[in-house]
Structures are given as structure tokens and as C-alpha cells.
Amino acid sequence: MKTDRVVEVWVGLDSGEWACGSGYLVAARLVLTAAHVIVAGPARHRSFHTLATSQNIRLRAEHADTLFAGRVVWRGEGEGLDVALVEITDKDWAKAPVSPVRWGHSTCQKTRVDCVAVGFPQALRLPDHRRDREQLSGCVNPTTGDKARQYHVQVDDAPGRHMDGDSPWAGMSGAALFSNDLLIGVVIIDLDGFDGHRLTAVRMTEVFADADFLRHVTAYCGTPDRPGPPYGPVLESAELASLFSGRRILQRPRSPAILLTSQVATVRWFHGREGKVTDLQNWLMSGDQSLKARLIVGPGGYGKTRLARELERRAREEGWITGMVQAERADKLPADPLERLDSCRLPLLLIVDYAETRPDVVQRLLEAVDPYDGPKLRLLLLARSPGKWWENLWGSTWQLQEAVALDEVDVLRPLPEDGEHRLEAFREASADLSLALPKVRGLQEAEWGDLTERLPVPDLSQDRYGSIMQIHLAALVALLQQGPTQVPARSKSSTTHEDLLITHEMPYWRASAKTHKVELGDDSLANAVTVATLMGAADRNQALAVLARVRGLDGQSEGQLMSVDQWLTTLYPASGTGRWGALEPDRLGEHLVATQLQDWPDLLTEPLAAATTAQLYRAFHVLARAGVDHGSARAALRFQVVEQLPRTGPTALAVALETEVPEFLIEVLEEGIQSATDVPEALAELAEAFPATAPELTIVAERVTRLERAVCRHLLAVGAGEYLPRLARATRRHAEHLHVLGRTDEALIVQSEAVDLFRELTGGARERGGQP
After folding, report:
1. Is the separation of the CB atoms in 648 and 640 below 8 Å?
2. Could you tell me if 600 and 667 lie in one domain?
3. How many CB atoms lie within 10 A of CB 350?
4. Interval 640-652: pLDDT, tens
5. Which domain holds residue 332?
6. pTM of the model
């Protein structure tokens, strides 16, 4: 919780005295408190909701001397809903707008959910009649208080009651109860019989059942320059919140490119994908099976993540606990949520994006639940392609085998070629983006809405517009280029939408760099963003090691590099557990990498030399995706593999088995193997990286088994006889894949070689008296 949002709530009583309670600022001028705090009767008669609310309300924030006027805008009805909302009406209130609070509730059955609240108990009254703050800590046991629909807070280090029976907690009523940064309840009563060690709180699940409460909270989360509700308040799981990426609620987006990201979701849900999301909703609800999984694959920009976000939104409205799993590696999964996952009392939808790069995360999540007796769990995996990673994961995880068939892969197709269909998507995107652009810093002055009618419409029949992201990108660039600041393309040989949008991002980079006292030219800024997008960094040490090797940053002092690092952490904040985020959407980041490599072909040589295995893995994935359309990315990837096979070979092989277009990586691996015949230790390490079974796609499988044969042959040539069995098995598999491809003559020759190798193995085993 943010303690600077805690407020004292003072109410004038009929007797002329003043009573104090506690409250919490949940929006710019909106305070959440207990309903019994803001009634006007004498303290001993202040029962629930039986007396008129006072119009004599004053509020004090933090350590201020000033009391500000307020009025009640909503109060709960009924004895179980002891909650109210107070608007700060005083014109002198100058507190800056606040970000929307995150709401939550306890959803699991395991005990001891930590919680905290800050309020103003009478026991901490100061000589000048102000109240000092009490920051209490404790825990709730989720099922305790179920019938009363309350949380019972077991308080750490609680004071005992006074001899006269007065509660030491008087004045704490109305304090917001938080767990894992989620507001889960409002403190109301010191429960008799527990000597001050147990407080009760109204659960937010009860408050959210009141439509008027939700209406007020939504309305007050707006700002004067941003009319209308910016977001719908939702309840998240207090125990599982750290498992998921937080929702990005931007009151003022910092750059135009952010408007295209799936988290911000500026553009409305595209009904052209309605059939797909309806199908997924049916999958959520179908059958009695506790655990089900589904894999959706498709190229970048086809809308996989937006589809998952829309399903997430609808599932949450139906009472599901859901979110995008944020951990990039299994060892980054938070331990406590994993331990509680199997005890969740509500249905769960877990979404894993980029699942091809995180199979260990998927496996660990599945191991944490009982597929037969656990909660209702749906696991949605998103990936570019169902490569070898999927076969390996499925084959090694029995829980996944129970949840989905190996060939049950949902391929997301391009948008129909129907011109009207794509034109509708373009117009919807233009309209929605024109409403969002005035919120972007530096773009408030233009009348964006007036531009939508005269936007140039590209030829949407082109193949590239089978991607919904390309349509949104075209709409955004068309608007920006009609606005007050038209820009030339960054590349002299190209005028793509990506080039233009990256150029429109540059003012944001410059302004942000200036704020962090980073004094670099545009090329150096772009190089830094490129390396951050490509490699990421887990911590500051990794960040500084990489930045010291970036073109344009060489020669900078450690202090200057630390400023660049801090700039990058805030430029595009990481949605997962890493230190740096990336320029998004993915295709835009990949385009930046490729175009910077055109201008600086050796840009990555030094940074990748300092890369960890995880950074190298991420970089190869980005380069492989960018290499589909850009020769500069392919050239950088080739150098890394061919020239540095001892260090990069296993990573390149792993990425080749996961990426949607593996052919180029396989080609450069073949070239690298031929160049490394005098480095047997590198070949041996690469040999151990080959999978036990070949990829499902026969064309790729043939190439991979041919690679394995070449590696084993070279190792045998230098006297590594232990690789003879490996060569025999790889040769036999290679023959099988050649046969499936219809290359019968080659298959016969290779099969004959395999027979000879197995005979050699058999003879050697007999001479040793063992089995072949």
C-alpha cells in the first residue's frame, strides 16, 4: 500500500464534538472509509447506517496541518456493508492525481495470508488532537469469517484492552486492508473475546456487488483532461497476484507506440476475431475435467496476445482468477503463489505468452496442481510455432498429456482478404487511436478526431495486412503523419510504417533521456534502445556490463552508464521480471534491431560478447524473428554462430528448434560445424544439445539429424569413439526422414551407412563380451 494516501477522517457530531476515523485515497479526490465513521450521532449510538450522514466532514492527508472539506457520495446499505466513499470537495485540495488502486480478495484455502493496514487509533492521539499513524501487520485465514462475509485480521503485537473495556483500536475504523498491494477490505470492528488481537474487515467482494460503488469508483478515476471511465475496477487474487504481470493502466501514455501494445489495448476488440474468442470461452466452460490446456500459434502481429487479453477480461467478469504469467524462467516463479495454487477456491485461467521460450515455466505451473482433484484450471499457451519445444514439453510432462493432445494445436490464421473486413478494422483503429493520442505527452494540441475522415488508406489487400497489428500500425502512422509533426523515414531506402513510427518515438527518447541527465545523440540513444530490446538485463550488474560495450556509449564513466541504465528501466518498463523492457509491439522492436544493424553492422559484436546464456538466448530469438524480413539481422546471427560456435552453438540449436522459421539458423549451424572441425570440445558440447527425438516437422527433422551426423562424424575423426552409437542412431533417423520426404535414393544410401555402423557396434560389443 502507499502510505501517503492514508487520510484522517474527522466528523462533527451532534454534540459539537469531533470524532476521528481512518480512510484511504482510492482516486484523485475519493476516499474509502467505514460507513459508521461518517454518521453524526454520539459515539455510543453510532450503529450501522441508522443515522443521517454528516455534511460536516473534514479530511487530513499525511502530516498536513490543513483539514479539507468533504461530502459522502456513497454508503453501503445493510449491516454487512459498513463502507462509504467520501469526495474531497475543498477547492484548496492540491494533492496530485493518483493512480487507480488495485482491488483484491482472498481466493485460496491455505492459511496465513499476510496483510497490512494504516490508520489513526485513539491510543495514538497527539497533544494537538491530531492522530499519529499506526501501521499494523497481521494475517487473515481465508475461510475464517465466511458466514459473516468478513475478514478476521490476526494482529501482530496487538495492545491489550483498557480496564474500562474501551478498544485500543478506536479510530482505526475505515482503514484500508491490503495484501500483496491489493486493497482487500475495510477495517470496522475490534472483535470481542480476542483482547485486541483480532480486527474484522468488510471484504471487497461484498462491496463490489454494489453497482453504485463501482460506478462511483470508475467515474472518479478520470481526470479533467481525460473524460470518461479509463478502466473498470476488477478484483484480483491476493495470494496469486505476484504470479501475474500487472495491468498497465496509463493515465497519460508516454509515447505513440505504447498505444499499440496489448496491455494498453487502445483499440477496441476487433469483432473479426469474435468467433475465436467465443470458441475459447466455450473451452473454458466445457467439461468436468479439472485441468485443460490449449496451444495457440501464429506469427507475430496476428493478435495472439490481444485475443488472450480479451479472453482474460471476459473470464474475469465470470468470476475467474486469471492473468498473464510474468516469470521468464521457472526459478523466477514466486514460491508462495505456487504453493497456494492448488488450493484456489475459484476457477483459474493461466496465460503463458512466448511459451516456446518458457517451457520450464509451463512445466513448473503444471507440477504445482493436481490435475484430478485440484481447482478448475485452464492453461492457455501462446507461441509463434509448435516446434520441438512443444513436443519435448508434452513428452516430459504427464500433466500436460492429461490436459491436451500433442496435435491439438490452434493455428491463428491471417485476417480474411475481404477488403471491407480489413477496411472496417482500419477505420475502427483510426477512431480509437484519435481518442487516445491527445493523452500522449506532447501530442495534446492537435484535433486528432478531425483527421480520421481524410486519412489516406493503404492498399489493404496486400499480404502484410493479414496481420491485425499491421492494420493498427498503418492507422497510427497515418494519423501521426497528418498531425502537426510529420517526419521523414529513418531509413533512406525505406518508408515503412515501422520506420515512421520509430521516428515519431524519438522525441520521447530525447525528452526521457534529458530527464535522466543522459546526454547522447540520437544514434547512441537508438543503439541503447536496440540492445535493451534485443538482450534485456536481469539486474544492474548485467545492465552495466552490456552498456559499457554499446557503440556510442564507450568511454562513458560508470556514473554515466548508471544514468543510461536508469533511463532504460523507465523508458519501456519491463512487464516481466527483467530490468529493461523492450520497444513494443514485437514487430516494431524487431524492425528497430534490423535497421540499426544496417547502419551499424558490428553493433552487437561487443554487447553479445558480454551476454549471459539467458541474454544470448533472447537475442537469438529476436534476431531469428527479425531475420525473416531483414538481411542485416541474418548477417548478425550468422556471425555469432559461425564465428563463435563454441560459445553460441548450443543456444543457436535450441532457438532453431523453437523458432517459427528455423531454416536459416540450421544453415549457419551447418556452416559453423564445418568451420569447427579443429575444436572437438565445441562439437562435443553441441552434440549433447541435440534432442533425443527429431522435430515433428519432417523437413526440419531431416536437417537437424543431418547436423547431428556431421557433428558425430567430426568427433569420431578426432578419436572420440564414444560417439559411435550416437552416430549410428542419428544416421538411422536421418534415413527415415529422407524416406518420408520422398528422397528414396538418398534414404537407401544413408540407411546402408546406418546398418554398417550398427554392425560395427555389434562387433565391438561381442569382442568386449557385452551387448551392442
Report:
1. yes
2. no
3. 24
4. 998 888 889 889 8
5. 271-411
6. 0.81
